Amino acid sequence: MDHFNFINSRLHAEDVPISNIVEAVGTPCFVYSRATLERHWHAFDRAFGDYPHRIHYAVKANSNLAVLNVLARLGSGFDIVSGGELARVIRAGGDPEQTIFSGVCKQDWEITEALQSGVGAFNIESEGELESISEIATRLNVRAAVSVRINPDVDARTHAYISTGLKQNKFGLSEERALETYLRAREMPGILIRGVACHIGSQITELAPYRDALEKVLDFAERLAGHAIEVKEIDFGGGLGVRYNDESPPDPEEYARQITEQMRSRGLTIPVAIEPGRGIAGNAGILVTRVHSLKHNEQSAFCIVDAAMNDLIRPALYQAYHEIVEVEKNEEGGHNRYDVVGPVCESADFIGKHRDLSVWPGDLLAVRTVGAYGFVLGSNYNSRSRPTEVMVDGGEFHVVRAREDIGALMNGESILP
Ligand code: LLP
Fold it and tell me: Residue 385, CB half-sphere, CA atoms under 13 Å: how many?
């Protein structure tokens, strides 16, 4: 459920007509809905009921300061993967102590800054990384709380590029390796063992892979108990899918019920942390674009719009489907089945293929469910400035990132003397 609805045939974000936003900021622009972000965060939070839990929003999904701040105000924790994301969380008023540092390649400066700002825990991806963290923590005279990320070798049955829990993926450690790592960790002066972590992939639309992964994680936690290592938290990652087209992913309630039932059936009350990104931000954002021109050839009809693969790369990168709708219903002709394409000089530059639309040049289209992995995956390819980001809050809207200035795109560049 989101808060982008048609009122009198005009698309609105909450109470604001999209066309009013475009009048003020132009196109292309991303529009986010505060109410939708909050609704989804609460849905995850409520779903766990009285089972002890923490929600660490995965910052990578959408790291705009306004998005982070809205979630920080709800008391959310955060999951970060870089020093840059840490800086954003702090700037947005997030609590470093409620922040988990994940990622396969944490650099020394990032570990140092995370420890200095009091980051709550590190999810460990290798033994070498554990040693670096212990060394840096010892030097800073602190102890780093860590969970080791298990790779459970479970197929999340999602796109190969966003599947992370199989042996052939670079993520996590096998149970055997992880056990050795825990045994070393407890001897390390700069380390405190916190729990076990696992994240099997993204856009997961079934519960079974989660169930299988959690069984393995809990079996592993029992093995740790056999070595007198106490697990104080299970960090079960993110990955719950959203509906882009005809998927029917489990809702947060079903997802949480399965996790808590699995915990309770083993008599466990260990706190659970989750790291949802897409589930919170995915359908809290749309991309608004203007039709530049229509072009037909013997085989295809093209609807050429001013947004491109540099603004939304998911269709090109993952063959992802995003629904495209007319911002104002236009009943007067223009009906056709179009490939919706952008200005970038590549045939991969499409937003959607074979879409039935009723449009004329100058009309506005909205690309739905781009609040997660939309703007953040954008680039300046073809020297295009990245679009404006706007957040709607009830009847008001706010520019939360101005359109990039062309001059600024050349900052830091220089020519030879
Ligand atoms: N935790 C970890 C350790 C992760 O690697 C990720 C996502 C998440 C949490 C959040 O997963 P989510 O709840 O958002 O599925 N660019 C791709 C998605 C990449 C996901 C990477 N890791 C896309 O556009 O589909």
Answer: 18
